[in-house]
Design brief:
The protein is an all-alpha fold. It contains four helices and no strands.
């Protein structure tokens, strides 16, 4: 018997945690698109690559706007990627123990990266300043 597979967008989950993650992926994807395009425009089109150095970043981080912008980009990108990886693990890792180990490693690595990235952004102080 040949099974036909439906073609088209993945249907929206009925409710619960999966529904919230489904919405999060769409909203964060749109926000990431805007933030990433803004970042690329500022860093590569408006400013020359030669002008981007430690002093450039230090001058940007004197205002809370750029720290917030970069922190939002970091948080959304990490959570979006972690949620996608979580979905892949749920879909393809069948043995319960391996799934638990994979998800645990994913969450620990995500927390480490989020902590280190946030610390760098929030505690950055220019040398000599």
């Amino acid at each position: 018997m040949i099974m036909k597979r439906e073609v088209g967008p993945t249907p929206r989950p009925a409710g619960g945690f999966e529904l919230y993650t489904w919405f999060f992926m769409r909203v964060s994807g749109l926000l990431l698109l805007v933030l990433a395009l803004g970042h690329l425009t500022i860093m590569h089109l408006i400013n020359s690559v030669d002008a981007i150095n430690y002093a450039f970043v230090a001058s940007r981080y004197t205002t809370p706007f750029w720290r917030t912008y970069d922190l939002l980009l970091l948080i959304l990108a990490l959570l979006h990627g972690l949620n996608g990886a979580r979905t892949i693990i749920d879909d393809y890792v069948r043995p319960r123990g391996w799934r638990l180990l994979s998800l645990s490693c994913l969450y620990v690595l995500g927390l480490i990266f989020l902590t280190i990235g946030s610390l760098v952004i929030l505690t950055f102080h220019p040398a000599g300043g």
